Automatic annotation (TrEMBL):
This is CubicO group peptidase, beta-lactamase class C family. It holds the Pfam family Beta-lactamase. Residues 38-386 form the Beta-lactamase-related domain. It comes from the Bacteria. Signal peptide: none annotated. PANTHER family: BETA-LACTAMASE-RELATED, BETA-LACTAMASE-RELATED DOMAIN-CONTAINING PROTEIN. InterPro entries: Beta-lactam-related (IPR001466), Beta-lactam/transpept-like (IPR012338), Beta-lactamase/esterase (IPR052907).
Length: 401
């Protein structure tokens, strides 16, 4: 029942995929991008390893329509990809979840961090959530070695002993250095070998190849909360108890300027600067949702999936002030429905992009967009939650539709 829908954008022919059973979902997606002020995006769905929806719409920039080749900066969506790299290595014994990070990265042991394990890192219990004040200035984040040295010399937050604290920005660097030390290779090279190669898609980028940067959609509006001055707002939030943890973890001075700089595509910052296509996100989670296989190839072993998707930190997160139910590098997807999936994992990003795998239905979804959030805030909205809820309902009734 899968059909192709031919479209034309300029002189380049393109082809969308819409299974008839997902027509309501496609209609909802297209309704989101009717004018340039809404930007653009792409949505891909796999069911039991088969791509059943691949659609895109809207504008990648004011004078450029979104196309099959458009990719987008997707913020924390990249944490899920980085975590999956660790799981690929763990199933071959290159990394052990229960060994201390210092076993792979000796300098990390400084200031009482010698016993922090890989498992604790992947469940945001390393106590290194603070990015605010970690470096001298925001553009220091572009220097990978400077960041790694700062994290190795940082002192862990003692609250980590009582529960998780979301490492909103630092998580990616910590995982990247773990992977680099364990393999002896640069993190981006390992991503290409462990994710892009096996899945047959190139667009898993933290450092974007020069020749592909013209494909990146322009983000808008600015990421500033409520349109307020970032420097002023972040400083205030950092001194208010209920928001202090979030400001420490996600709001370094000058971050709003860094997000808009093309220099972010020269750096490796897997906690937030991943650039992906919707198909790349959906295909990775599609392999997980399909028992570890996709395209006739084994991507993850069932035992690895069982271990990596099991909830391991149920406590209240001292940064987010909620219970995300962290598994090993993933959170439970949030859907706009009364009943939330109980056997699903993924990772969403600031602004709206994200992806997840529902292991019960065998369905995965990837969504990327350049329109950050809603008219109220650029930090997020309900687009992915609503698309995910509809996709889950359709997947649950797949054989009867």
């Amino acid at each position: 029942m899968t059909s192709s829908v031919r479209a034309s954008q300029g002189s380049v022919p393109t082809e969308m995929v819409v299974d008839q059973r997902l027509l309501p979902l496609a209609d909802r997606f297209f309704s989101m991008y009717r004018n340039p002020q809404q930007g653009g995006g792409a949505l891909v769905v796999y069911v039991r390893g088969e791509k059943v929806l691949d659609v895109w719409a809207g504008w990648a920039d004011r004078d450029r329509r979104w196309s099959r080749d458009t990719v987008a900066l997707s913020f924390s969506t990249g944490k899920g990809v980085a975590s999956t790299v660790v799981h690929r290595l763990a199933q071959r014994g290159v990394i052990d979840y229960d060994l201390p990070l210092a076993r792979y990265w000796p300098e990390f042991a400084a200031h009482g961090k010698s016993e922090i394990t890989v498992r604790q890192l992947l469940t945001h219990r390393a106590g290194l959530h603070r990015v605010r004040g970690l470096l001298s200035g925001p553009f220091d984040m572009l220097d990978y070695d400077t960041v790694i040295e700062a994290l190795a010399n940082a002192r862990p937050d003692p609250r980590r002993l009582n529960g998780p604290g979301y490492h909103a920005v630092t998580y990616g660097w910590l995982v990247a250095e773990l992977v680099a030390r364990a393999t002896g290779k640069p993190f981006q090279d390992v991503v290409a070998e462990e994710i892009a190669g096996p899945l047959g898609i190139d667009e898993y980028w933290y450092r974007v190849p020069e020749g592909h940067r013209g494909r990146i959609a322009k983000l808008f509006p600015h990421i500033n909360p409520g349109g307020l001055n970032w420097q002023f707002t972040s400083a205030i939030l950092a001194h208010v108890a209920p928001t202090r943890g979030l400001a420490e973890a996600a709001m370094p001075d000058g971050f709003d300027l860094l997000v808009r700089s093309p220099r972010v595509h020269d750096a490796v910052m897997p906690g937030w600067n991943g650039v992906f296509s919707a198909d790349a996100v959906a295909r990775m989670y599609g392999a997980i949702a399909n028992g570890g296989e996709i395209g006739g190839r084994r991507f993850l072993d069932p035992a690895t999936i069982e271990e990596s998707t099991r909830v391991q930190a149920r406590g209240r997160d001292y940064v987010l002030a909620v219970r995300p139910n962290w598994s090993l590098g993933y959170h439970r997807p949030i859907l706009a429905s009364r009943v939330q999936p109980q056997n699903a994992i993924g990772h969403y990003g600031v602004g709206g992009s994200g992806g997840f795998a529902d292991l019960d239905t065998g369905m995965s979804l990837g969504f990327v967009t350049n329109r950050l959030g809603s008219s109220l805030t650029a930090l997020g909205d309900l687009r992915l939650a609503r698309l995910g809820a509809m996709a889950q309902t359709l997947a649950q009734n797949w054989n009867t539709l």
